[in-house]
Amino acid sequence: MAIRSSITKTFGILTAGGDCPGLNAAIRGVCRAAHDRYGMNIIGIANGFRGLIEENTRALRPVDFSGILTRGGTILGASREKPFKPGNDPGEIVGEKVAAVKDTYRKLGLDCLVVLGGNGTNTTGYKLTREGLNVIGLPKTIDNDIVGTDRTFGFHSALAIGTEAIDRLHSTAQSHNRVIVIELMGHKAGWLALYAGVAGGGDIILIPEIPYDIKAIGRHLEERAKTGKAYSIVVVAEGALSVAESEMEKKDRKKYRAENGPSVAYRVAREIEEETGMETRATVLGYMQRGGIPSASDRVLATSLGTAAADLLAKGEYGRMVALLGNNIGSVDLSVPEGKVKTVPEDHHMIDTAVAVGTCMGV
Ligand code: F6P
Fold first, then answer.
1. Average model confidence (pLDDT) for the chain?
2. How far apart are CA 29 and CA 329, in angstroms?
3. Which residue of 31, 222, 241, 279 lies most exposed, with the fewest beta carbons within 10 A?
4. Is the Cβ–Cβ distance between 110 and 43 less than 8 Å?
């Protein structure tokens, strides 16, 4: 393959925030295209922004990004280090971390930094552009909550895992005539619970965007019982909350939650038992949703976004986040996702779909 001309000669690549299936496919996409098509030099940065602060980096060669398409996790390692945010260390000075990031960037002779991450990572990336660095973002997260892209990679794989879990819970709930509450990830946005709930035929779906009323949940479960369905599946996003919680001050809500079980699934299960007297169990799927091999769809999306990022690097189009826009791969300004969370709009067609097939959304 003839090497094409490229404005970017050397770039760094890192993965930050929670991991997700498809990260390695995206790394491979960026690196293969950047190396094979454009002849760029690649520096892998370990453990997200921490690797830049601690100068933990290494040159990546084709052997490093070969054979990783199907692997879960990230070969670079990840962390939730946010150089612009103070951590827990006493006396920690934020400016020093940002200075260390900039220092490493210059020492390595980078023309650009490619950051693979969620809202926090792309926001940090944008802030770094304001500090004078060149940055390109790639949107990843199982939460699917990044503004500027129609979908993030990781979501499709987690959706399949969540759906399979709901399928499996159906048979045991039915055998025992129980209500089973399953908690899926999604702190601020309910995409995963909503889509997995629809795909798995959840009877009730609770998402952070729609505070739930336990009375409405109780009525729905009792109606089902009257029609001979003495079991039910309740799919709940980890950030779902009751109407009462939604009206509390943040600190009161925190206290209430600390006193009422380890997470929302347990709170909802207890409330259902108190409201209806039905035997109820809670299951938290947790990190299962982020682990393991990416789905075919996530591999395709991650690879396409990765190669698109390499094209931006070659053209010197910095300060962008590559994105799925309809059926096309494009890019948006890195300021677009900055500091935002894409939540489920009240009038989203999937909410209407769920309700149309008889699912209760908690109200
Ligand atoms: O990656 C996003 C996410 O999966 C959220 O849904 C969840 O709140 C969070 O990660 C938990 O991750 P960690 O425990 O790694 O911070």
1. 97
2. 13
3. 222
4. yes
Q: What share of the chain is helix, strand, coil (3-state, %, to 5)?
A: 40, 15, 40
DSSP 3-state of 172: helix
Q: For ligand 1, what atom is nearest to the CA of residue 17?
A: 1
Catalytic residues: 143
The answer, yes or no, to whether any atom of ligand 1 lies below 6 A from the CB of 120, is: no
**pLDDT tens figures, 10-56:** 999 999 999 999 999 999 999 999 999 999 999 999 999 999 999 99
- What pLDDT score does 69 carry? 98
C-alpha triplet 259, 260, 266: angle, nearest 5°: 155
For ligand 1, the distance from its centroid to the CA atom of residue 145, given in whole angstroms, is 12
Pairing of strands 41-45, 10-15: parallel
Largest CA distance in the chain: 71
Is residue 154 in contact with ligand 1, taking CB distance under 6 Å?
Answer: no
**Which residue's structure tokens are 């000075």?**
93
**Nearest CA residue ID for atom 8, ligand 1:** 187
Phi, psi of 285 (to 5 degrees): -75, -35
Query: Is the minimum distance from the CB of 18 to ligand 1 under 6 angstroms?
Result: yes
CA–CA separation, 309 and 32 (whole Å):
11
Could you tell me the distance, in angstroms and rounded to a whole number, from the CA of residue 248 to the centre of ligand 1? 24
DSSP state of 77: -
Q: Which among 292, 290, 300 has a CA at the least distance from the CA of 72?
A: 292
Instruction: Find out whether the beta carbon of 361 lies less than 6 Å from any atom of ligand 1.
Output: no
What is this structure's pTM?
A: 0.96
